[in-house]
Amino acid sequence: MGIIQHAQCDILEVSAERNTVLHVAAEQGHDKLIRELYLRFKEQVLLSRQNSALDTPLHCTARRGHVRAITVLIQLAQDCGESILGCKNEAGDTALHLAARHGHAVAVKVLVSAAAEPTAEVNNAGMSLLYLAWRTYWPPDTAELRDDDGATFVHAAAREKQFKVVSLAIKSHTLRGLLDAQDRHGNTPLHLAVATGAPGVAEALLRKGKVRADVLNNDGHTAFDLAGGTTSFFTMVKLVVILVAFGAQLGPRRHDRLTPWCDRSTVENIHKTSDSLAVVAVLVATAAFTAGFNMPGGYRDTGEASLAGKAAFEDFVFLDAMAVATSVTAAILFVYGKASRSGGGSWKSFAWALQCMWVSLLSLLLAFHAALDSVVTSTTVHYGFLVVYVCMSLLLYRIQTWIGTLSSSPRRCTILRFLWQRCHSNGRHDGIFKRLYPLVGASVFHFFVFTIPSSIAFFCLARTIEIKPADWGLGTSSPAPAPSPL
């Protein structure tokens, strides 16, 4: 068997991942070997050499948190004039990103101290270098650090929607001064929270941080002026509700140039969804209409319903009629909304159609329960509707969380504060608000209206589901029957 001879190993590549010897030494934390390799192969420019993942030796040692190796690499790079602190790997991470992500606080301190001006760049995942450094390292040592845009870690946390980090800064008395700090563009953390669509962060800054909402940035905009830049309808509504609730004002501008907020994608989605929901509304109306002529219990010879006069049957008739009326109304509103040319008109018709649709579905469900209750006495029916009750409760909670009424932002107290501000606002400010955001007030109204029929339906369903202890196998405490007389 012949001997296979390989070429002489190259100092620049010693592994399949294109790692050099310096990469391996840095990953193992051999600071003395790093210095020796650099001195022996100085002309090879090993310090900034990247492997297949674009990692430099500094990336490798920062990932492991070898402080001495990091210090040696930084010193050698400074001596020869190489720039390695800002080098990014394939994921867009610098060495500081990796040290912060892996929780190496001492390594982060060394890297932050070596950087004259921490960069404002983010990695491919959108994580700011300054925010990651602060998250790993204790705030007093990095509170005064600013990136290339003059932003503090609070700016970075607000921009990246890091609610917990902003909350920690709010609770710290030593960091209170950073809450209203402006970067080189004049933006405060509140500006960035609103611009990036972070209602939770904005509410925390206003409610707990007591930040100023009237600060103008270099473009002459307050935080309120940036609320219209978000593309999500529900996010825009949340932000406007929060800002109005805490008395935020719009920046100075000409009133004749005010344009109402409008998202074309939202209008298009409404038109697309209306087609499907209109079909569903017609199906619900058909089912309810058919049930009205197929009465539970059948008919007498006189043509009257056999169960006429029974309470459960009367409930069925009322609820079935309610389902027919509301489903037909919903179908009409869906068609009218789609035919409407204005975005506001189509949205309002769509919102009312959804309300009617929800009422029709609840009415049809309760009508079905009343019909079964009037003709069936088995407890199995109650078990089935108990499962339906739980599932509907979870569905309602999920819907309300999605539209924002039960989510962490805005809180119910903030919504009530918004309504109070609207009732007591001056005519000029209220007119500007209605012109810019005509759908916000209607949205809050529909959020509250949505819960009314749901609460009524759940209350009625809970009252009708009566499961006795004996049905669960728990037994009863009723006395034993008396013996029959001889």
From TrEMBL:
Signal peptide: none annotated. The keyword Cell membrane does not apply. The keyword Transmembrane helix applies. Keywords: ANK repeat, Membrane, Repeat, Transmembrane, Transmembrane helix. One of its GO terms (cellular component) is plasma membrane. The chain crosses the membrane at residues 226-248, 277-296, 316-337, 349-368, 380-399, 436-459. It is a multi-pass membrane protein. It comes from the Eukaryota. InterPro entries: Ankyrin_rpt, Ankyrin_rpt-contain_sf, PGG_dom. Residues 268-372 form the PGG domain. It is found in: Membrane. It holds the Pfam family Ank_4. ANK repeats lie at residues 91-123, 185-209. This is PGG domain-containing protein.
